[in-house]
Design a protein that fits this description.
The structure is a homodimer.
Chain A (H helix, E strand, L loop, with lengths): L1 E5 L3 H12 L3 E6 L5 H9 L5 E4 H7 L2 E4 L6 H8 L1 H4 L3 E4 L4 E2 L7 E2 L7 H8 L4 E5 L5 H4 L10 E6 L2 H14 L4 E4 L6 H18 L5 E5 L1
Helix pairs in contact in A: 3-4, 4-6
């Protein structure tokens, strides 16, 4: 499948490399056409891999992963272009963290809105699904790095898109427990959770951890 | 032990009843001396149980549980009185949830501050420990309502106070896994988590659930 990965950071590279290894044709998008990190990623990835602007990548992808920083995400999506994203599933992994006062970060909102909803409003014809933002990059594509059962969550307004994303999480990335938290307003809590995650990380001594819901 | 429970809602009544059942002498505090819910609680609790103003309760307690609403917590603590709380452990269970736009609630902050820190600033000579705010009232005092292993968290600036609170969580309430997340700034994430908790609740179909950190 032709897939766009927006963002050149650790999350973008991890997702892009996993998709590339699965045989997909991945184009990594960034603000500029000649981003060094995107070039470096594409040159070490498989022959099918390429890179370009956010718009180049969005035009290429039948499926889009948004792995940009929280601060740059809405602008990245706007640069990608509403027409290039119309009708497509946009899997949003970005976290709206505010590092302006250093570590630990705050969130850019207090749960009265979410980055995922902002993105959905920016490209109303796209099918935004929030997921994977609650775990570290390595665990996203290899949940077995954390032993035993643990959970990944998703939310979105398009039921068919969520079904497809759940299939991707299970079949491509190996997730066994996928919990649908409802419509895209659930992304508010998913994004706020990450401020808590940072403190769990500090107490855990490793970023290879996750939570399991027990009931 | 003489214990103050500030707040007359579900959390306050649940904590107060558990402490009463353990043989402690509990005074439930509220804004007024003749609060109906506090009267009703005291009349059905053991002979030792009583009620009064926030200040009455704080003066009585060697240990203080803050179970007020997020919106009323700082004012309740101020009413309780800095002198009545000086040197005492104040276990803060309150969640700064904003229901002004209905359900699901937002948080009153975005992780750049916390209610627990506001309380600590209001009564600097008290020893504030944040804990138990990440689970439903019934589970707080009876973690076995949720099967298997699951976690309760605490944070605070006073190491000895945290050690004492951990002992209370284990010996009085039956918690087996208690994780210290660090100083009181960790309360920011613990409080933001509750916005996520509300969506987990919706997906779980029961409030008798919790999370387990897996690593």
């Amino acid at each position: 499948m032709n897939i766009a990965v927006l963002g050149t950071g650790t999350v973008g590279a991890t997702i892009a490399s996993k998709l590339d290894s699965l045989g997909h044709t991945v184009k990594m998008g960034s603000r500029t056409a000649n981003n060094e990190k995107a070039q470096a990623w594409a040159s070490q990835a498989g022959r099918r891999a390429s890179h370009g602007t956010f718009a180049d990548a969005a035009a290429h992808g039948e499926l889009v992963f948004n792995c940009t920083s929280g601060a740059g995400a809405v602008q990245a999506i706007q640069s990608a272009g509403a027409a290039n994203l119309a009708g497509k599933i946009v899997i949003d992994l970005a976290n709206p963290l505010d590092f302006s006062k250093g570590m630990p970060p705050a969130c850019m909102h207090r749960g009265d809105d979410s980055l995922a909803e902002q993105i959905q409003r920016a490209v109303p014809d796209a099918r935004v699904v929030k997921t994977l933002n609650t775990i570290n990059a390595g665990v996203m594509v290899d949940p077995a790095r954390v032993p035993g059962d643990h959970d990944v969550f998703l939310s979105g307004n398009d039921a068919a898109a969520k079904t497809e994303v759940e299939r991707i999480l299970r079949d491509w990335f190996g997730w066994k427990r996928v919990t649908d938290l409802g419509d895209l307003t659930a992304a508010r809590g998913m994004e706020l959770y990450v401020v808590f995650w940072v403190r769990l990380w500090g107490a855990s001594g490793t970023a290879d951890f996750n939570i399991r819901v027990v009931k």
